[in-house]
Amino acid sequence: MFSERVGYIVWVSDLKAARSLDKYGTVHYMSRKMHYVVMYMNADRADEIVRNIQRFSFVKKVERSYRNEIKTEYSSNEPDKSRFYSL
Fold first, then answer.
1. Is the pLDDT assigned to residue 21 strictly greater than 90?
2. How many Å apart are CA 25 and CA 13, to the nearest integer?
3. Domains of the chain by residue range
4. Which residues lie below 8 Å from residue 9, measured CB to CB, with a gap of 6+?
5. Who contacts 4 (Cβ-Cβ below 8 Å, separation ≥6)?
6. Alpha-carbon distance 18 to 48, whole Å?
7. Bridge partners for 14 per DSSP
8. pLDDT-based confidence at residue 71 (cuts at 50, 70, 90)
9. In what side-by-side order are the strands of the sheet with 59-64?
10. pLDDT value of residue 3
11. Of 8, 9, 11, which is closest to residue 61 (Cα–Cα)?
12. Which CATH architecture has domain 5-67?
């Protein structure tokens, strides 16, 4: 149903020109202060799209986002001590 998506951080020198990155994937966030764009694209065409994006003169560097690979479910083996410190 949904295709696998992968995130990329694109460091740019010109934010006005970076608006054209919307053709290559979904632009999630553009940082005006630090000059980067967070975008998501289909994983099956990601390598081809990254090669095309790197050819632009306003693109400094393209990095893969590993946010979806970070473990977000935590388990605590220690009991909750907060109830012992109540007044």
1. yes
2. 19
3. 5-67
4. 36, 37, 38, 62, 63, 64, 65
5. 42, 43, 44
6. 18
7. none
8. confident
9. 26-31, 36-42, 5-12, 59-64
10. 81
11. 11
12. 2-Layer Sandwich (3.30)
